Amino acid sequence: MNHLKDKIKKLASENYKEVIKFRRHLHANPELSFKEYKTSAYVQERLTDMNVSFQNGVADTGVVAMIEGKNPSKKVLALRADMDALPILEENEIEYKSTNEGIMHACGHDAHTASLLGVCGILNEIKDDFEGTIKFIFQPGEEQAPGGASLMIRDGVLENPSPSSVIGQHVHPPLVAGKVGFRPGLAMASADEIRMTITGKGGHAAVPQKFIDPILITSHILVALQQVVSRRADPTIPSVLSFGKINSVGGFNNVIPNAVKIEGTFRTIDEKWRFKAHEKIKKIAEGLAESMDAKCEVNILVGYPCLFNNEALTHRCRQAAEDFLGKDNVVDIPLRMGAEDFAYYSQKADSCFYRLGIRNEGQGIIHNLHTPKFNIDETALETSIGLMTWLAVRELSS
User: Fold this and answer.
1) I want to staple 386 with a disulfide (CB 3.0 to 4.6 A). Which of 12, 68, 69, 140 is the partner?
2) Do 354 and 271 belong to one domain?
């Protein structure tokens, strides 16, 4: 295996500048969730250039490629990358800045997709050196419920043939380029969207006693709902309830509106508590509104489940990473309250979702995900394609 490891390192070193070109093209041409038509076409063009077979149209814009090594039925493994961008106006002054105003690859999915293309290229070149089959999942819509992963699974991405395990990665701004992070077991929280409409009776703000003020009632509801986390949740179960959007339906500085709409998110790491919390949120909001002669309509969109990394698989991947990168470049990462639709794969097959360091303080690459100045140290792409290739080869041989 040492000879193959050295071969993969050499190919990663030779190929990663081409992967940088892939990433910059994708970064300059971002597309929102489930609208990744040009991105999908670009992926298909690159796979065609590599002479790698693929199926398109999975969950509309998704692409599934396949490379068979020797004895292809021995074992099947899947590798996954997401393709969608975010509705954020980019503030980076770079030559490959987004050309689609108000849309930006602020979560690194351009790096994920470019990396997986690079891994395809290397594995296709060394397919006579391993046994088994590798599926490459280029997935739409990670950023938007119901999540492209759930739709890819619905459309059979984990069938014909069925992978025994799925491996994915995500860029991680706290980690410097060249390092990666792993966490076995529970790794990320569930995430649900909460939407409420509080309806009262609007009128002139000078005589509030004649009306039912939905803004005041909304403020009471927002404060009361915090007890779901502070007074109802088991303190050993991390939970987050946050509201990020409030809009009155009508209203003015001296006009009480008829209604207020609010949107938020609930996240936790316990699936049983997750759905109990939904009931409590609904009960508190509806009851409080009714006590003030208003009405509250609560709609909770059940989103991504908790992400669980199979412990045995993650342990094997971490050992392989230490072997490939050196122990000093492999770290433990904490539980995150962020969510990922990769969790759907983890419900269906043994899965490992790890983090790729992309930070470079000297270059000012320090900004967090989902921010207008997010960027990556592109030397991380050499680490990315080399390591994921090595993980795939090692897992097929385990």
Assistant:
1) 12
2) no
Q: Which residue, among 202, 196, 226, has the nearest Cα to 214 in the 3D structure? A: 202
Q: Please tell me whether residues 195 and 178 are part of one structural domain.
A: no
Query: Angle CA(165)–CA(329)–CA(106) in degrees, nearest 5?
Result: 70
Of the candidates 272, 304, 336, which is a domain's last residue?
304
Q: Which amino acid is at 213?
A: D
Based on the domain organization, do 17 and 70 belong to the same domain? Answer: yes
218-225 long-range Cβ contacts below 8 angstroms, 24+ apart: 218/246, 218/260, 218/262, 220/288, 220/292, 221/196, 221/284, 221/285, 221/288, 221/289, 221/296, 222/262, 224/284, 224/285, 224/288, 225/281, 225/284, 225/285
C-alpha neighbours within 13 Å on the C-beta side of residue 66: 18
The domain containing residue 299 runs over which residues?
Answer: 191-304
Question: What is the full DSSP assignment across 240-282?
Answer: EEEEEEEEEES-BTTEE-SEEEEEEEEEES-HHHHHHHHHHHH
Q: pLDDT tens digit string along 30-72? A: 999 999 999 999 999 999 999 999 999 999 999 999 999 999 9
Query: CB-based contacts of 65: which residues, under 8 Å, 6+ apart?
Result: 47, 52, 53, 54, 55, 120, 135, 136, 138
3-state secondary structure of 95: coil
